[in-house]
Structures are given as C-alpha cells and as structure tokens.
Amino acid sequence: MTEAFGSYQYEVYFNALRGVVPDLPMTYSELAARAESVLPPSLWSYVAGGAGDEYTQRANVRAFERWGLIPRMLVGATERDLSVELFGMTLPSPLFMAPVGVLGLCSQDGHGDLATARAAARTGVPMVASTLSVDPMEAVAAEFGQTPGFFQLYTPTDRELAASLVERAEKAGFKAIVVTLDTWIPGWRPRDLSTGNFPQLRGHCLANYTSDPVFRAGLERTPEEDMQAATLRWAQLFGNPLTWNDLPWLRSLTRLPLILKGICHPDDARRAKDGGVDAIYCSNHGGRQANGGLAALDVLAGVVEAADGLPVLFDSGVRSGVDIVKAIALGATAVGVGRPYTYGLALGGTEGVVHVLRWLLAEADLTMAVDGYPSLADLTPGTLRRAA
Ligand SMILES: Cc1cc2nc3c(=O)[nH]c(=O)nc-3n(C[C@H](O)[C@H](O)[C@H](O)COP(=O)(O)O)c2cc1C
Ligand SMILES: O=C(O)C(=O)c1ccccc1
Question: What is the architecture, at CATH level 2, of domain 5-188+237-386?
Fold first, then answer.
C-alpha cells in the first residue's frame, strides 16, 4: 500500500511541535541550494540550467506569482479530495514526476531511476520514466509497486527502434506512453555548451538503447565491447524531427494512452486531439529548450480550452503545493515537477524524493483547506485573480 499523503501534514506538524524536524529542506530555495552542494558541479549545471540566459526558466516560476487564489470562508473544508481520474485509473492526487533523463546519475548510489520508482511506489505519485536512464525500463517498472508508471519516448529516427521501445514499455507494464516533441534537437544551453557537458554523449543514461535488440542489431560490436561506438550510434539516432504527418504512425505504435509532451499552442492541441491522442502535455521543458520567453503557465488556459475535454498534463515552474493548486485551477488535469524531486533524489535517494512529494502534497492539501476548496473540482478559473 502507498502512504496516505493526507496524514503527512499531521506527521510534520506533530513532529515539529515536539521539535523533531527532518534534515531535509521545506522550501524550494533551500532544496536547490543543498542539492547544489552535494551534486558534482557539471551535473548540477546540467540539471539546474536551461536555454539561453534562462529567462524562460525564470518566467515559468514567476508566472505562478502573478496569480492569486481567492480564499473562501465558512466552507468547512475539513476533508479534502485530491484524487484524479486519468485513463480509467484513480490517482490519489494530481501530482506526477516529469521525466528527467539524468535521474540515474543524481542519486548517491548511481541508480536514481530505481530510487525514484521506489518513491512512486511509496507515495502513489506516478513517475514518467525517461527514455534516458541508467537502468533499463524493465528494471524501473519493476519498482513501481501498485503505482502506475508512464514511459516517456524520445522518438529515434529508426522507426523499428521506436516500435521496439514502445513494445518493451507495454510488456513492462507501463500504463501510458508520453512522446516528447520539443527535444528532437537539444536547445541552446550555454552552461553545458561552455563546459562541453552532455551526459549522454559521455555514454551515460543509455541503458534503454544498449539493452534493446533493435539497437544492438545495428552495432558492429556490442556496447559491452565498444561503448564509444554505441554512444556515437545513439547520437545519430536520438532525435527525429517529426511532423504532423507522423502522428498516425505514432498513434499506431500503441494501444496504451498516448500523450504528446511539449504542446503550448491551442492549434497544436486541437490537431493532436484530432489525431487521436488521449491527453495533451503542456510544457516548455522547464525552460531548457527554447528561451522563447513565454511561461508555460501562461499558455495553459488556451491549451486547456482547445483540448476540449481531453486531459491536460502540465509542468514547468511548479515549485510548491500552492503552484499545484493554481495549475489545477487554470485547467490542468495533472501537474508535474522536474527539478524539485530531482534535487530531493540528490539529497536523500528514495527518502529525499518521498520527502519532496509529501511536502508538495501536504502543502497543496493545506492550501485547499485554508482557502476553502475541498476538492479539485472546486478549483475553477474563478478561484484565481490575476494579481499583477
Ligand atoms: C535534468 C533534466 C532532464 C530532463 N530530461 C527529460 C527527458 O529525458 N525527457 C523529457 O521529456 N523531459 C525531460 N526534462 C523536462 C522535464 O520532463 C520537465 O518538462 C521539466 O523539468 C519541468 O520543469 P521544472 O523542472 O521546472 O519542474 C528534463 C528536465 C530536467 C531538469
Ligand atoms: O536535458 C534535457 O532536458 C533532455 O531532455 C535532453 C535529452 C537528450 C538530449 C538533450 C537533452
């Protein structure tokens, strides 16, 4: 069984009253500062950094500050219901873990994908497992327990390899496929470019490829014999500049729910819906891809409207439980975090991730209690006021 997150706030309260405070941060700024102090500098830069001067990354966070929740009184919101229906499943809350391709490297034991999957099992918070991982997807999925997991696909140029990855994800028990559209080519990332620092190009996090029969069949020597050649092959295959003409092919890859990640324009949301996808994932990749300036939160409502009833997943800039509540009020069905749980992983492995997830959920739950919104259905756009 997963932990009831609702009890976490009481645990934190009572422990704090007794003077027992966990040795893990309770605010994002402290979380980031402590993660920086434990991660190797190059890995810290890779995770914390973004595109260009990181204006968009900052805008993602600031966008939340421009919305204010209007408190309602005498509601008696003594019990809150944060559960969400998605693809016929009932999730305990709208929170999920966005795919992060270097998780494996971020935990002290070098197996952060597994550690994160264990946190998903403990909390009931789904993990979207990246194509880029230190351990193969089958090993990651084996740690999910009763919590559903989603597989994030970076579509390679080799269609047979794409089909193989999706087939493996189905067999491994993943419950949905998330196709990321915004990273067929890495963005302009000065921190990484100035240090020549791209973990995958050093042969890291490629287990899903090196364990794949189709990928292996394309190599002259096995990855065990020649990882450099395997890495080069990966770099050649990694990104596929798909077009809308490829959507029927993507759709044909799986009968699992199909989610397109990186949708920010209402027209793209409409087109995706017409193409038969099951959900839209509104995101600007945490400001890592284009430094285009617009916060993901500021395009959410338009995407939700165009999605016309399809579930809309959202990430980019969520740093607190209040942010989760605001994204739901602006129409998101489920809300993802990337860097926050990655920093928890760096600080404390599975425990660190569990801590961050429970904090975010306890804060969301308390916000709904204090502001008088007992269920997610009560969080409509009318509960927000644009403050600046
Ligand atoms: C270090 C790092 C690696 C990422 N790797 C992937 C990935 O492999 N696949 C993907 O779809 N998104 C990836 N993302 C983007 C996240 O899924 C997500 O969109 C983003 O982190 C959300 O923004 P946030 O970090 O502000 O919460 C990555 C993000 C970070 C920070
Ligand atoms: O770092 C990322 O955000 C990411 O998803 C990625 C994946 C592969 C190559 C470059 C970037």
Answer: Alpha-Beta Barrel (3.20)
